[in-house]
Predict the 3D structure of the following.
Amino acid sequence: MRKIIASALTLVIAGLLIGAEPETLPPLTTGQPPQTWAALWDGFDPRPEPLDLETLKTWEEDDVVLRIVRYRIGIFKGQKAMMAAIYGFPKNRPKLPGLVQIHGGGQSADYRAVLTNAKRGYATISIAWAGRISAPGYTVNSEGVALFWAGKKSDPAYRLTTDWGALDAYHAPCRYEKNNFQTVAPAPWTLDAVDSPRNNPWFLCTLGARRALTFLEAQPEVDSARLGVYGHSMGGKLTVMTTAADSRVKAAAPSCGGISDRPLENPLYAAMINDGESLRRIVCPIVFLSPANDFHGRIDDLASALQEIRSAEWRVTCSAHHNHQDTAEYQVVGLLWFDQHLRDAFTFPQTPAARLTLKTAEAVPTFIVTPDSARPLTSVDIYYTQQGQLPGQRNDHENTMARFWHHAKATREGGSWQASLPLTTTGKPLWVYATVHYALEKPITGAGYYYAIYTAKAFALSSRLLIATADQLQAAGVKATAPPTRLIEDFASGWEKAWFTYDANAPWGRRTHKIYDERWPAPPLARLALEIRSAQANQLVVGLDNYAAVIRLAGGAEWQSIHLAPADFRNAAGASLEQWQGIRELRLVATERLTVRTGGRDQRVTVGAEWQGPPPQFQNLRWSADDEQGPAHGEVMKKP
């Protein structure tokens, strides 16, 4: 520790002696790190320091000017840190609103976000805080970042990218093996020689994002009074931290992050890096894009986040079943949010009003949602689960991703929709919310969470998540009226609401977490059975978690009966599923890629084949009785 302190002091003294530029963050004078969130940012002004702007590449596409740039983050321990980024704007359009786009863990700055935003009238800077860049003729992947670290300028793949100088705020991988976004501990590559929040990479990346706002302010085509920030996953947390720290942010749209990072083990981290500390300082309009099964920005924490923010202008959009990615009508909500608050080009409906009634004549909870009818709505969906987690409970990672959301059929009464919520038990809490789907006047195209281009024709707005504890259910006299059953799916009208897909182009393939719910337990000796009708000869893939069974279908007008045992399901290495217990996800698809990690390496295999003819028809998906025989028709392919 003494060596670290001595090294830091040497750097500071050496800088003063040679007339170097002053440190961006003043060295600790007493060895005491900041103890409060306000103290962490006290004295830092993101504006005065020069940007030292470098333009590494310029090109035009579809009347959009695009540039690879680097700007100065700051001077730390006597060394300059530079952020690489992709910047773009539509040609000949003055006074543009500006956006800072922040990528997630393992991802990169990407020109597609910049290009699609520019086509909609925004100037955007996509910052490469981890060093990776994806743009035509300028790609920096993880290997490219390593080349930069090593200074191998003679390598054809070498590119200038983000340079954290004496520090390390890279990710996947970090430059130094022991660097960790969850720590405040000192190391040779940290700012302070004692435990300090200024050592934490989250703080450093937030500082870099604040300097991106300064970059936008300096651009002649940008209206500095209309700046927004958005990001996905780790970028979602950085969005929340940047919005809290910088009053220049006039609108924010974090997705899958910024609400659930709340460890309390380290008091310095808890007081200054914890999501709750940032949320309590947000005053500008903010929309949370929070899929209901997301592992990183968990819907369980969304209710707390909405209580913590100080902004009166907020919305949420929560897709049922989805984890860390989304479909077009949910992703587009972030773009529309900026349209409203930075361009005055859209008006959001109000958050749907929701009410949960526990005491009913039938002893079954009732949920009532009243949407804002200012825009034409297309449907109202009510979802509930008993697999959530109460505040204060340690996160069960697998349960968070696999929980099943029952779709409750709603009936309209005037301007409200009402649904009964039959429960399997009163020994567990109840979580329920609604999503209202609204039509758009015209389609909107954007770059999604992983920069895939989507086009949305509608958008989805969710209500607050309401929670009733087991004690509240029992005190209200609620009865368990939905006992376990072997029938998993009858495929009646609307069955897809309990299933999902991430592929907007998939004609019929779907997946579900029904088999994880205690309403559909698998008897130990049962088989998974269903009937299928395929007009043409095909292969059906039935997937369970990382396993799949491939069924050869003869085709024709007759229903084919399929009965599958655990041993019929194989993983990418050819190993069989041993038992039903513990399975979480069921899939009915034409083809899929299985992956299993063995011996430190990933093994991958693609099973199934492109579907021929019209979509299949299904019926009677169930856990079969012990005396059922099968398969009556349809051959299980052991070696696809």
